[in-house]
Write a structure and sequence with these properties.
The protein is α/β, with parallel strands linked by helices. It has a domain at about 5-180: 2-enoyl-CoA Hydratase, Chain A, domain 1 (Alpha-Beta Complex), CATH 3.90.226. The protein contains 10 helices and 11 strands. The protein has helices spanning about 30-45, 65-70, 105-115, 140-145, 150-160, 165-170, 185-195, 200-210, 215-230, 235-245; strands at about 5-10, 10-15, 50-55, 75-80, 80-85, 95-100, 105, 115-120, 125, 165, 175-180. The termini are far apart.
Length: about 260
C-alpha cells in the first residue's frame, strides 16, 4: 500500500498521508510521494487546487526521528521540495491543509507550506524540536511569526509546547475550525468556494500575495540550516533523540 494516496474530486486533488502506524511521520517514501503528488496537481490542467491531509488520528508527527537517528535525515527531503517534498516547493496552485489531529514539528511546517489550513478541534500545532536538541529547520521559525503574533510564535519556538486548534484559529493560523472527523469535508467545502472562481485569476492572486508579502525566505532557510547544524553538532542532539526513542526525559549536558 502506498504511503501517499492521490484522488480527485472535481477540479480538486486530495493528497493523503497514509502511514498511521507511524503517526504519519515523514520518511523517504512520504517525501517522494508528496512531491510526486504535487507534480500531478501542477501538471494536470483539469486540477485547479489541492487538499493535503493525513489518515487520522494524527495529521503528521513531523520527521521520523528513527530515520534521523539512523543517519538518514537527507532522505526526508527532495531536491525540489525540501522536507516532505513540499516546504520549499515552488508551485502555482493553492493547497489546503486539512488537519484532523495533531500537526507537530514538521507536521506544522507542512501546514505552513500550504496556503490555507482547516483543522478540527482534535488538532494542535507546535514546533517541539527544542525538546530533542533540534531546530525547526523546515520553515517553522520564519513562517510562524508571519502568521501568528510575534510573542506567540516565540513561545512555541522556545517552549516547544503546542497550541490548540481553537487558539490557532483565534490568532488566524487556522482558516476553518470544525468538529473532529470533519476536517476533510470542511476543507472540501472551502475548496469548493475557491473552485467556483476562475482558476487563472486564483493562481494570479495567490502569486501576487506571496510576492508582495514581507519576508525573505532565502535568509530564513540559511539561518534555519545554520541553527540546525549548530544543534546537531552538539553532544545533546544524540541524547535528545535517544531519550525520545527510549520514552524517557532527556538529561541535557548543555554542550
Amino acid at each position: 500500500m502506498s504511503v501517499i494516496e492521490f484522488s480527485t474530486d472535481g477540479h480538486v486533488a486530495v493528497i493523503t498521508i497514509n502511514r498511521p502506524e507511524a503517526r504519519n511521520a515523514v520518511n523517504a517514501d512520504v517525501a517522494r510521494g508528496i512531491e510526486e503528488a504535487i507534480d500531478r496537481l501542477e501538471e494536470d490542467d483539469s486540477l485547479w487546487l489541492g487538499i493535503l491531509t493525513g489518515v487520522p488520528p494524527v495529521f503528521c508527527a513531523g520527521a521520523d526521528l528513527k530515520e534521523i537517528n539512523a543517519g538518514r535525515a537527507p532522505t526526508l527531503q527532495t531536491e525540489r521540495g525540501g522536507f516532505a517534498g513540499i516546504v520549499k516547493r515552488v508551485r502555482t496552485k493553492p493547497i489546503i491543509a486539512a488537519a484532523d489531529g495533531p500537526a507537530l514539528a514538521g507536521g506544522t511546517e507542512i501546514c505552513l507550506a500550504c496556503d490555507l489550513i482547516v483543522a478540527s478541534t482534535a488538532a494542535s500545532f507546535g514546533i517541539p524540536e527544542v525538546k530533542r536538541c533540534l531546530v525547526a529547520a523546515a520553515g517553522g521559525l520564519f513562517r510562524l511569526p508571519r502568521k501568528l503574533p510575534f510573542n506567540v510564535a516565540m513561545e512555541l519556538a522556545l517552549t516547544g509546547d503546542p497550541i490548540s486548534a481553537a487558539r490557532a484559529e483565534h490568532f488566524g493560523l487556522v482558516n476553518r475550525l470544525c468538529e473532529p472527523g470533519a476536517a476533510l469535508d470542511t476543507a472540501k467545502e472551502l475548496a469548493g468556494q475557491i473552485e467556483a472562481n476562475a482558476p487563472i485569476a486564483v493562481r494570479a492572486s495567490r502569486r501576487v500575495i506571496y510576492a508582495a508579502s514581507p519576508g525573505d525566505d532565502s535568509l530564513g532557510w540559511r539561518l534555519s540550516l545554520e541553527g540546525m547544524a549548530e544543534a546537531m553538532a552538539s553532544e545533546d542532539m544524540k541524547e535528545g533523540l535517544t531519550a525520545f526513542i527510549e520514552k524517557r526525559p532527556p538529561s541535557w549536558a548543555g554542550r
